[in-house]
Amino acid sequence: MASPPHVVAITGSLREGSHTRTALREALSGVEDAGGRGDLLDLREYDLPPLNTDDEETEGVETFTERVREADAILLGTPMYHGSYSGVLKNALDHCGFDEFEDKTVGLLAVSGGSFPITALDHLRSVCRALNAWVLPHQAAVPRSNSAFENGEFVDEKTAERVRILGERVVRYANIEPDPDCFESEQNVGAADD
């Protein structure tokens, strides 16, 4: 019997009361509902200095990239800052490359204090395509996050369900046949050998 798909959820927020972290935990409950195993990778727990390819990797970078590399599928969660995803998540993704993302299924989640964080999701989708990941068509957005949660729980069950479905889908499609490499990845020399 094959082992259940292992999904890591990377949270792009360092804030203590992060709505992104809360939403990713809900997505991980969907992972478990679908029979997968899920782990939250909290970037506060890793020493990920700003990427400088002249520097040697720190132990925190090696540990983080190994955890991502060993996963069967990935959930990326971010708050929307200035129309895009967080710099913390950008730096974490910069430390990764094809070894961590190529041919893996990725689910996207974005949280916004305002309206729908569509551009943050689009930007993450482009990054994942450049790493030859297979990004789920289903994505989850949590707008108006200050009123979306109460006591660490979703207020609106429809939003919570959409987030749980993201976790279920990432398990369902964790072993999907990879697509051919995309044009973006051929231009992504930095991820291969900067």
UniProtKB/TrEMBL annotation:
InterPro entries: Flavoprotein-like_sf, FMN_Rdtase-like_dom, NAD(P)H-dep_reductase. Residues 6-144 form the NADPH-dependent FMN reductase-like domain. It holds the Pfam family FMN_red. SUPFAM superfamilies: Flavoproteins (SSF52218). One of its GO terms (molecular function) is FMN binding. Its cofactor is [4Fe-4S] cluster. One of its GO terms (cellular component) is cytosol. PANTHER family: CHROMATE REDUCTASE, NAD(P)H-DEPENDENT FMN REDUCTASE LOT6. Belongs to the SsuE family. Isf subfamily. This is Iron-sulfur flavoprotein. It comes from Halalkalicoccus paucihalophilus.
